[in-house]
Predict the structure.
Amino acid sequence: MMLEETHEVRLARDGRDGYLTYLLFEPDLVITDIEMPGRNGLELMEKIRIHNPMVKTIYISGDQNRFSSPLEEEKTRYGAGFLRKPFSRSELLWLLSQILR
């Protein structure tokens, strides 16, 4: 994994598992795919924000246009970041540095 060298990482297989993982781990940052089974990334973050409205978030998707309106709201309201698939290690690390500063 790209981040495990420098960060403590927990993985989840879908949105429901992601929510449970968040509750157990309470990370400072959630990186989530937008489209996934069970609960999409936007729905996942809506649930997580009940516990921590300002948790940092990076959304990943191959179809940014389809989600442009809710992503703009996330960016404006919460400072969320976005990566378009496929992305490089350097793109991810750059966005992490921006989100975590």
Observations:
- The chain has four helices and three strands.
